[in-house]
Amino acid sequence: MAPPKLYQNYDYDCSRASFITIPLGTAGGLDESNLSSFLLTKKGSNVFIALDAGTIWAGVSQFISSSSKCSRFFDITYPSWATTVDQKVAWFIRNHILGYFIGHSHLDHVQGLIESSPEDYLSSIAFDFKPPINNGLLQILRSLLSPAQQQQSNPSPTILQKKSIIGLPYTINAIQTHLFNNVIFPNLPSFGRYEYFTLDNTVKYNLIDLVTVNETQKSSMKGQFPNNIQITPFELCHNDIMSSAFLFQDMTTNEQIVFFSDTGVPSGNYNCDWKEKINVVWRNIKIDKLKAIFIESSFTSNTSDSQMYGHLRPKDVMALMEPLLMKSQQTIPRTTSLRHVKLIIEHIKPLANQFYSRLSLKQQIFKELTDNNPFNINVIIPQQGEPICI
Ligand SMILES: [Zn+2]
Ligand SMILES: [Zn+2]
User: Does Hydrolase show up as a keyword for this record (predicted)?
Assistant: First the structure.
């Protein structure tokens, strides 16, 4: 008997969605072409931020190769010279990814950024393409130029060519010291490719302040993504290192999305209370406005604590839902169901050894999550390159 298709619960009806995510990488190891990363944007925009960056190139390639999905959701125009998939991937990365939120410094969350970085640069020559391209970062850049500048060939705005790498101090220090350090990889940020933004734990930021534009340019971008989004970072425990969560809030609708990088049950004694760190995030959630939680479920529920190394199982994820309802900012009368929330499961660690179940690992994890789901949260196992409306 064929195993049941348990996790194909994708909803392509985006009519009521506010945000869209494109999973660029969904697994927690082994396959270097599918490591943790998600693009996020507001519906209607075609400019994205990346949430972790384990895999960039292969995920974008998977997404744009499925041209019907791509064109259904987004207005993407390629230069006339971009005829191969690789040329299109490079263009998409250059013109449509605004910056990178990195939750922690493990290689499976940063290696895509490092490896695509040589192509991750929007040259001012792009202003002179014929026919002109009027979407993505180029559209933002054009709207920021004065009429006189718009007439010039090659106006060379210094803005937005530098993309942002954003995170808490522990993460940014690790990337600076150990990755872009001219030993492991060329120090591209020092060559003007990237700008680091080091965030303070639990401080609220405007997303637009984390992009390299000046005050006048910011005011001219009012109303469009990435303006009008507030972001709050939170420290998380990840065995012996610090990880992070990022809470995004639309300042017009108050709708929220929370992204957790790796976190969970330690193997060993570390002075970090992982559950309490997550409770701090929950206290900042407006429960009726929460649209999605991105969180890991690396292993199946029968994995022992000694094998967890700072990760989560379905039983740990579901045990976080009651504290979410208890500690979040509640409605009157109280919200008691999570039916309105998408639970997007990241970082399922592939098993290369014999598996005990007739279900695939993804099906098994989906089953364990949905078998014990008292608050009816909408569990989604993402697929690389398949957009999810939020
Ligand atoms: Zn990790
Ligand atoms: Zn990881």
Answer: yes
